[in-house]
Each structure stands twice: as C-alpha cells, then as structure tokens.
Amino acid sequence: MLLTRIDHVAIAVHDLEAAIDYHRRAFGAEVHHREVVDSDGVEEALLEVGGSFIQLTTPTRSDSPIAVFLEKRGEGLHHIGYRVDNCVDALASVVAAGGTAIDEQPRPGSRGTIVAFVHPKGSFGTLVELVEEPA
C-alpha cells in the first residue's frame, strides 16, 4: 500500500482570515501551520484534525490555480492530499495505473514536503496531491 494516510483536505477560499475564524468558532480548530507558497501563488493555513489537516487555501495572485478554481467554481473542496513514503514511486504507480500526472516530477511543497499532483480526469474527478514528509 503506497498511501500511508490522508495528509490533508484542501478547501479553496476567498478570505483566509474569515475561513480561519469560522473554523475556530465552529469547531475550536486552531492554525497549526501557515505559509505562503510563492511557486503556487497561494497562502495556506493548516488546521490539524486527528493527525491530518484541513488546508484552507487562498490565491496570492490572479493567475494561480486556486484563483482560477475560485473564478470558475467558487469556494469549496479543491483537492485531497494523500501521504506517501516515496513521492517518486507513488507518482510512477499512478501513471502506470492510467492516471495523468500534472507534475512530471515531484517538487517542493509547503512544510518542507515533496509533492506531485495528479489530474482529476485520471482519478475519478478528484484532484489528488501526493505528499511525502521530509526525512
């Protein structure tokens, strides 16, 4: 089994502060990690839930994938992140099974992770992020 757990569920939002405040008031959730990922044009806040995360993410520029998503679909579920021990091996397995890699090679992600995205057309309509924790 290449998947070791659910790393995160990503929710695209227009107003990160309002989303954080809502999750704090509604669920008592606190921000575990917050980061701007310039390469993806996003700012994210991670709320820990049972060893996994809710990732609230908002665009920092108008051409980021999150900005495009929000323009087309509005706020809501964006992708699911699956934790893997080896992102290279997991990506190769996905491609061998008929999935379509968005990232041809794993790349740096937030929290020092290594990540690769899989296109929703090859994964039953769900954008998937493979996430490898740093060693």
Order of helices and strands: EHEEEHEHEEE
Helix content: 10-25%
The CATH fourth-level homologous superfamily: 2,3-Dihydroxybiphenyl 1,2-Dioxygenase, domain 1
Main beta sheet strand tally, sense and closure: 8 strands, mixed
Low-confidence stretches: none
What do the pLDDT scores average to? 96
CATH class: Alpha Beta
Strand content: 35-45%
| Gross CATH architecture | Roll
Could you walk me through the main structural features you see in this protein, from its secondary elements to its overall organization?
The chain is an alpha+beta fold. It has one domain: 2,3-Dihydroxybiphenyl 1,2-Dioxygenase, domain 1, CATH 3.10.180. Helix content is 23%, strand content 40%. The chain contains 3 helices and 8 strands. Strands 2-3-4-1-5-8-7-6 form an 8-stranded mixed β-sheet. Strand 3 and strand 4 form a beta hairpin. The model has no long low-confidence stretch (mean pLDDT 96).
